[in-house]
From TrEMBL:
Source taxon at top rank: Bacteria
Native source organism of the sequence: Roseivivax isoporae LMG 25204
Pfam families (UniProt xref): ABC_tran
Name of protein: Sugar ABC transporter ATP-binding protein
An example Gene Ontology molecular-function term: ATP binding
CDD domains (UniProt xref): ABC_Carb_Monos_I
InterPro entries: AAA+_ATPase, ABC_carbohydrate_import_ATPase, ABC_transporter-like_ATP-bd, P-loop_NTPase
């Protein structure tokens, strides 16, 4: 690729005691793409995305955003740089409404002379914004934006979490197993949503164990093994069986793919 990656990492190391979760791991996400990250259990995928999203601090290595070295002290710092991560747990408050969940921690407040946190919330502005975002992503089957998140189906909840990420993630969205807990129909909707987000120009990192989903939506696949990037493959020129064989170590990738 001749383009500059939006988000890149070189030589990331993360150790937990005697376990090396990331072992000089490289990573590249290019503008406008869906990059899947696949790997066996314990290969270090979560550690990689946690490092990229500020949830853990790597012991060594470098992360670059738009070509510039960055360090994220915490997830808020990564969010402020436009990197939004949707974890499997979704980080939602079930008893709160859709709109409250979309704005958690970044509420819109009315203008005025008082300090930011003393000013009243601008509920109307937040509802308008949430409605627009859900609408843009075709999620307006959710009728009542004041509805509590606990009353939504799993797919709708995932939809709200992705819409929230798309609303605020100006540069990169990272999705950790977004279809793992969903049925066939709901997974389909979430896959469509992911493609909608891509069409809006936001690149996506998709961590998934579901090979048919990965092969359906990914532009490139980062194969992770033993804490590092083993190779990057094009889903159009490789079979699912080969991707799984590379991932598990049953087969080695051709040398021109290794450490791509
Ligand atoms: N907080 C932690 N404390 C100790 N060890 C950890 C911690 N987090 C991860 N590990 C270890 O680091 C290694 C990589 O784990 P990680 O969760 O990154 O892998 P993964 O590829 O996401 O796995 P999975 O697909 O099972 O979620 C594993 O051996 C794991 O046990």
């Amino acid at each position: 690729m001749t383009q500059q990656p939006i988000l890149a990492a070189r030589g990331l190391v993360k150790r937990y005691g005697k376990v090396t979760a990331l072992d000089r791991c490289d990573f590249d996400l290019y503008p406008g793409e869906i990059l899947a990250v696949i790997g066996d259990n314990g290969a270090g995928k979560s550690s990689l995305i946690k490092a990229l999203s500020g949830a853990v601090t790597p012991d060594a290595g470098e992360i670059r955003l738009d070509g510039k070295p960055v360090t994220f002290e915490n997830p808020i710092a990564a969010r402020e740089h436009g990197i939004e991560t949707v974890y499997q747990t979704l980080a939602m408050s079930p008893a709160l409404s859709i709109v409250d969940n979309m704005f958690m921690g970044r509420e819109i407040r009315r203008s005025g002379f008082m300090g930011k946190y003393l000013r009243k919330l601008d509920k109307a502005a937040m509802e308008k914004f949430a409605r627009e975002k859900l609408n843009e992503l075709g999620l307006m089957t959710i009728q009542n934006i004041g509805q509590a998140v606990e009353t939504l189906s799993g797919g709708q909840r995932q939809g709200v979490a992705v819409a929230r990420a798309a609303a605020f993630g100006s540069k990169v969205i990272i999705l950790d197993e977004p279809t793992a807990a969903l049925g066939v129909k709901e997974s389909r909707k979430v896959l469509e949503l992911i493609q909608d987000v891509k069409r809006r120009g936001i690149p996506i990192v998709l961590i998934s164990h579901n090979m048919p989903h990965v092969f359906e939506v990914a532009d490139r696949i980062h194969v992770h093994r033993l804490g590092r990037r083993l190779c990057v493959v094009d889903p159009k020129s490789i079979t699912m069986n080969d991707a799984v064989a590379f991932m598990t170590g049953a087969k080695e990738p051709p040398s021109d793919l290794a450490a791509a």
